[in-house]
Each structure stands twice: as C-alpha cells, then as structure tokens.
Design goal:
The protein has helices spanning 3-14, 42-45, 53-56, 59-64, 66-77, 86-96, 111-115, 141-146, 174-185, 236-251, and strands at residues 19-23, 100-105, 120-122, 125-131, 138-140, 162-165, 189-193, 213-217, 230-232. It has a 6-stranded parallel β-sheet, sandwiched between helices. The protein has a 3-stranded antiparallel β-sheet with strand order 5-4-6. β4 and β5 (138-140) form a beta hairpin. It is elongated, with a radius of gyration of 19 Å. Helix content is 35%, strand content 16%. The chain folds into 2 domains: 1-31 and 84-124 and 170-253, 3-Layer(aba) Sandwich (Rossmann fold); 34-78 and 128-165, 2-Layer Sandwich (SIR2/SIRT2 'Small Domain'), CATH 3.30.1600. The protein has 10 helices and 9 strands.
Length: 253
C-alpha cells in the first residue's frame, strides 16, 4: 500500500465537508461474506445449485423454487457470525467526525449500521427484516434464522415470507433511489469501494457526482479508474482504517 497515497487521501478528507461513500460486496468480504464476481465470489464458487446465483436471487425463481432460494439465502446471506470489519468501523468513525454524510451501499447485510453508521442508504434492501407480500405482516430476523434455510411462512395468513431485499427482476425503491441520488449529487468527495461497478442500475448512481475528487478502492479494475483522483488496489479495510488514522493524527496537531 502506497503511504504517499494514504497521505493524499487524508488530505482530500480534510479539504472536504460533504463526503459520500458508495460501496459494494467487497466491503464485507473481510467480515467473511462472499462478494459476487471475484475469483472467490459467489458466481465462481457456488456450483451445487446448478444455476447461477443471479438466477436464484431473481423474483421469478423465488416464487417458483422457494425451497432452493431459502437454502441458498440462509447459507450465504444470513451469517449471524459476521461482524463489522475495519472498513465499516472507519466509515462510522468518519461519519462521527462530521465529514462523511452518507453511506450508499449495494450490500444487504446491515454491517454498516452495526458498526455505528447512521445515514445508510441501502439500494438493495436488507436481510434484517422480512415481510409477507400478501398481508404485510413482519417476521423477525431471528425467527427466519431459526428455520435454518426452510421456507418461512406467515404466522397470520400462511403465505411465503419474503426478505426485504431487492431481487433481480424487481425495481429499486423510489424513495431510496432519490435519497442516494441526492446524497451523491451534493457530495464534494466521493469514495467508491469494494465494487466492480458492474451491477446496474446501482452502478449508475456514481454519475450523479459532479464534484472534482473521486477515490476508488477496489482489487480489480473498474470503469471508473480513469476518472478517479486516487486508485487503491489494496484491502479496503486497511486503506480506510489507515487513512482515517492519518486524518485523525493530522487533526490533533
């Protein structure tokens, strides 16, 4: 990791008053969650189902094969042992300092909130809540977890309960998209991390940014590399924690 770039990154933070973080699955890999498209990601390692994770996580597949969906969902998304990592904690600290105004995330694991972040805009929803599509009754996360991958049925009407996540073939929530677009368009520094920017329409949100400086932290090349002020190919937890530490140390002088 280039220490000079860490110093440059912390300087950009000091010079900014409205920072927004836009992140993807790579933010949570240090917590033990799989990302999607890396060599160790879901698309390359999940073979036992005979169809792609993208197919399993679609609305039509959910209703046709809820047993397979929930087996997969329980195995890869309801990981109760996952804890916030250095990236989540650094972002929460940056928000507490008043610099970071919003986290816009494609993740559904709730780890940003558990780390202490307050203004988290979840483009794809969250696994922490579930509702019945028929009658609207809620089912607690712990109750779904306790079923260990079996199909949860509504206690009120018996319908299959659905996670409050946006599946493939479903539109993003309009209220959430407006919040994300508003946050990014008003930012003076955009930090993009842990995402290949290959998932649409979520990846389109970076185009709302009209500021000068973008910091990109991702293991692999992305379409945004050429526009970024700084590009890190290092572990996102290490980059963010070292940068926030450097920023805090400079503020104490």
């Amino acid at each position: 990791m280039d220490k000079n770039n860490i110093v440059r990154f912390s300087r950009l933070i000091r010079e900014s008053d409205n920072i927004v973080f836009f992140g993807g699955a790579g933010v949570s890999t240090e917590s033990g969650m799989k990302d999607y498209r890396s060599k160790d990601g879901l698309y390359n390692t999940v073979k036992q189902y005979g169809v792609s994770p993208e197919t399993i996580l679609s609305r039509s597949f959910f209703y046709r094969h809820p047993d397979v969906f929930y087996d997969f969902y329980y195995r890869y998304f309801l990981d109760a042992s996952a804890e916030p990592n250095r990236a989540h904690l650094a972002l929460a600290e940056l928000e507490k300092s008043g610099k970071l105004k919003a986290v816009v995330t494609q993740n559904i694991d709730g780890l940003h909130q558990r780390a202490g972040s307050r203004n988290v805009i979840e483009l794809h929803g969250t696994v922490l809540s579930h509702h019945c599509p028929a009658c609207g009754a809620a089912m607690p996360y712990e109750q779904v977890r306790a079923l260990r991958g079996k199909i949860p049925k509504c206690d009120r009407c018996g319908h299959i309960v659905k996670p409050d996540v946006v599946l493939y073939e479903e539109p993003l929530n309009e209220r959430v998209t407006e919040a994300a677009a508003g946050a990014i368009s008003s930012a003076d520094l955009l930090i993009v991390g842990g995402t290949s920017l290959a998932v649409y329409p979520a990846a389109n949100f970076i185009h709302y940014f009209g500021g000068e400086n973008i910091v990109l932290i991702n293991r692999d090349e992305t379409p945004l590399d050429g526009r970024a002020t700084l590009v890190f190919r290092d572990n996102i937890g290490e980059v963010l924690s070292e940068t926030v530490k450097n920023h805090n140390a400079a503020d104490n002088f």
